């Protein structure tokens, strides 16, 4: 039997990122067909389905069960991810789950147990920085040995602003979690302990702990500091610099152009994460679809990575609340990962 050349995808959750992924799969990428859509709001699901030429399902679980769906994209609110990912595993269907994999450590462990029982990888988690050209070039430089063994990394994650629903812990679970996954991948090492330090608050902070400095101690001895600032107003600014024994490697300026006039050089700052990482999501979904069409989910961030990010996020939230250094304890890593 020859492998299918078109992946028939069902999308659960048609909010901001769900609709963006549908646009990506229908207008940017080839070899993908959005055949089914579900949302907690059936009117929205009907409208989005009509625009995409797909069928609207009243519930995500029905969508997962449908014969017309080969693979599932979970883009609903984080608290619903476990339910849909478990159902996809039970149906033996590949599932791309937007981050977080699930909102609690226990839920992540339940997903891991189900996937291990299934016996092969079905789950990819939407930690897209692993597909970003700048981070990939940085990792390649590090692994080439050009800057020697890594010692430290300095990161900044600055948002112009954040949604009204943000509570203090969202600065970690929704914002810093991208750096948490990125450094595990960059250095090939788990995070062993976390601290959170806070300077005086920004006058733009509202009730949020803004800014803050997260210190991640990696098991391999590398130390990472991550500045989180979620109300900088001037744009979306993602920075990173690794200090090695013989040199450094930094993320370049994301501005595609620079303008010189009136005695100044000006480079545009991205407005938000879509502006900065738009093409990265294209590469991410392309890689996912290719691996599924090739016979299995491989390579990308999986259940173990979603689990580890959740445990480190929990530890960082505790560090934020208590001001203490919190050690990270992970379960035994199953052979599947
Ligand atoms: P959003 O705009 O609020 O969209 C979530 C959508 O899911 C909404 O349409 C929501 O409906 C729907 N929904 C909620 N419960 C559902 C259920 N039980 N079944 C089906 N649909 C349900 O949020 P978003 O920004 O798109 O984020 C969605 C997910 O993607 C989150 O987990 C977020 O962390 C992740 N995300 C990842 C990135 C990234 O960089 N990788 C970027 C953005 C978002 P209502 O609006 O009616 O609640």
TrEMBL record:
Transmembrane segments: none annotated. Residues 7-127 form the Gfo/Idh/MocA-like oxidoreductase N-terminal domain. InterPro entries: Gfo-Idh-MocA_inositol_DH, Gfo/Idh/MocA-like_OxRdtase_C, Gfo/Idh/MocA-like_OxRdtase_N, MI/DCI_dehydrogenase, NAD(P)-bd_dom_sf. This is Inositol 2-dehydrogenase. One of its GO terms (molecular function) is nucleotide binding. Belongs to the Gfo/Idh/MocA family. Gene3D superfamilies: Dihydrodipicolinate Reductase, domain 2 (3.30.360.10), NAD(P)-binding Rossmann-like Domain (3.40.50.720). Homotetramer. Keywords: NAD, Oxidoreductase. It holds the Pfam family GFO_IDH_MocA_C. PANTHER family: INOSITOL 2-DEHYDROGENASE (PTHR43593:SF1), PTHR43593. The keyword Oxidoreductase applies. Its EC number is 1.1.1.18. GO terms for biological process: inositol catabolic process. Residues 139-328 form the Gfo/Idh/MocA-like oxidoreductase C-terminal domain. It catalyses: myo-inositol + NAD(+) = scyllo-inosose + NADH + H(+). Involved in the oxidation of myo-inositol (MI) to 2-keto-myo-inositol (2KMI or 2-inosose). The keyword Nucleotide-binding does not apply.
